[in-house]
UniProtKB/TrEMBL annotation:
Protein name: Heparan-alpha-glucosaminide N-acetyltransferase domain-containing protein
Pfam families for the chain: HGSNAT_cat
Transmembrane regions listed in the UniProt entry: 52-69, 90-112, 118-135, 142-159, 196-213, 225-246, 252-272, 293-314, 329-349
Superkingdom of origin organism: Bacteria
Keywords per UniProt: Membrane, Transmembrane, Transmembrane helix
Sequence ranges assigned to domain Heparan-alpha-glucosaminide N-acetyltransferase catalytic in this UniProt record: 8-164
Length: 358
């Protein structure tokens, strides 16, 4: 029988940190016109390694809730305090995301302000699933997960098309929020936002799956956890490949995408647990992991300012000048240098025991 896990695991911080580092790498190429294919999202339907990064982060956020919130919520008397702390943190992340988009709107004179975004989605998922961790028993959490997946699948399967712009996710976001979207065409009246309202149902399911996986990891139920991960992966692939099934699609965060990325995330979690917690490997990425949101927010502000000032193009241009025959490699080196810079920042913060909790 597997022994129960400790209250805090280096593997969770390490996996979260590697995910943030991967976010910085794929979000900040030197030149978007020259990027290696695996470092790009699928154009629409499909799946690339980059499409795993954001759901893995949300999955790990759910795992963290299983360690930080759920055990303490067993004491009914502390639930109001837990709820207040959880919602305050979610609100801070939400406001940080809104302010980040204010900066982008101002620096680049965008035609419309965009309220949706990565940090906003993280805030909604952490807040929503955190409440489920506080108030619902495991069986009820499974029921909510099933309802999210089946309900969202029914909405998508009932649509006449899942193509860009005209799918139900984009149509609803356009009807409610246009022109305040990631993409909006005022001529056609069509828009889309990859972090919009309806697709948040899928993101919530990903985070809830992480909560369930974290509870099993905390209890040392590694065999059932591995079986759940394999089952999610197989079910997701089959449901995406059968005629009339739902394709893998990050923009829509389809239920099949939830299952496939959830299965892969379970595999990553188990591998990290085996290597770091059980075999004592170094917790590579931990320094990013303990300052995850701060590193993402700070790096995003820095990237926006560098792009607006022309410093980003100058850095990439210098690398291209050194290797004119390999612009994609220069672009990757520019992104890698950015990640290394921020690794230095979080390493310094960790050395000083400074942990910025947004």
């Amino acid at each position: 029988m597997n022994a129960p896990a400790t209250s805090r695991m280096g593997s969770i911080d390490a996996l979260r940190g590697l995910t943030v580092a991967a976010m910085l790498l794929v979000n900040n190429p030197g030149d978007w016109a020259h990027v290696y294919a695996p470092l790009l999202h699928a154009d629409w339907h499909g799946f690339t390694p980059t499409d795993l990064i954001f759901p893995l982060f949300l999955f790990i956020a759910g795992v963290s809730l299983a360690f930080s919130v759920e055990p303490r919520a067993q004491d009914v008397s502390v639930r109001p305090v837990l709820r207040a702390a959880l919602l305050k943190r979610a609100l801070r992340i939400l406001v940080a995301g809104l302010l980040l988009h204010v900066l982008a709107w101002w620096l680049f004179a965008l035609p419309a302000y965009r309220p949706w975004g990565v940090l906003q989605r993280i805030a909604l998922c952490v807040g929503g699933v955190g409440l489920l961790a506080i108030y619902l028993r495991p069986r009820a959490q499974w029921a909510v997960l099933t309802a999210l997946l089946l309900g969202y699948a029914a909405i998508l399967l009932a649509a006449d098309t899942l193509e860009p712009w005209r799918n139900p996710v984009s149509r609803l976001d356009t009807a409610l929020f246009a022109p305040y979207l990631y993409k909006y065409n005022p001529v056609t009246g069509l828009g889309h936002d990859p972090e919009g309202l309806l697709s948040t149902l899928g993101a919530l399911a990903t985070t809830l799956l992480g909560l369930i996986a974290g509870r099993w990891l905390r209890a040392g139920r590694l065999g059932p956890l591995a079986a759940m991960g394999a089952g999610c992966l197989v079910l997701g692939v089959v449901a995406a490949c059968v005629p009339g099934g739902l394709p893998l699609n990050k923009n829509l965060w389809t239920p099949t995408y939830v299952l496939v990325t959830g299965g892969l995330s379970v595999a990553g979690l188990l591998l990290a647990h085996q290597l770091v917690d059980r075999q004592g490997w170094p917790a590579l990425g931990r320094r990013f992991g303990v300052n995850a949101i701060a590193a993402y927010l700070g790096s995003s502000v820095m990237a926006l300012v560098m792009i607006a000032s022309g410093a980003w193009a100058a850095c990439n241009g210098g690398l291209v000048g050194l290797m004119p025959a390999h612009p994609s490699l220069a672009s990757l080196l520019c992104a890698s240098g950015f990640v290394l810079f921020w690794w230095g920042v979080v390493a310094w913060l960790d050395h000083r025991r400074i942990y910025v909790k947004i």
